[in-house]
Amino acid sequence: MRIGSLANAMQYSTTGLTAERYRMDVISANIANSNTVAAPGQDGYRRQSVVLQTTNNGVRIAGTSEDREKPLLTKVDWSHPYHNPATGEVTLSNVDPVMEMVDMIGASRAYEANIAAFNTAKGMLNSALQIGKM
User: Which domain holds residue 40?
Assistant: First the structure.
């Protein structure tokens, strides 16, 4: 294996680490907003997801997108200050905290896998350099 390809492997792992860390940040924001209530006349918080793209140098964060397919939740709460006077309903987010935790575990495992791949490539690179010293 060429040293350049080992450096490429390390670069791919680095971009993967960045992407998975960003995914965890977005998932954390979703969990933090899972119980928010929309103010009257405003749309509620919608679940965010990360959009990734592959490149020649690894993976790139293309941005985030809102989940417009899953409807916002509503519940009747006459005591809430933002309730609809006619129906008593309040509009909640469309975030499912359990699914967010599942996604968080997946992102965390992918982050760990990128660390392992980076460390393996680094070890191989160090071994190749040690062979060259002899």
Answer: 3-133
- Record the pTM: 0.86
Structural domain tally of the chain?
A: 1
pLDDT tens, residue by residue, 85-96:
999 999 999 999
What is the rounded distance in angstroms from the CA atom of residue 44 to the CA atom of residue 39?
8
Give the mean pLDDT of 3-17.
85
Helix H, strand E, coil C: the string for the chain is: CCHHHHHHHHHHHHHHHHHHHHHHHHHHHHHHCCCCECCCCCCCCCCEEEEEEEECCEEEEEEEEECCCCCCCEEECCCCCCCCCCCCEEEECCCCHHHHHHHHHHHHHHHHHHHHHHHHHHHHHHHHHHHHHC
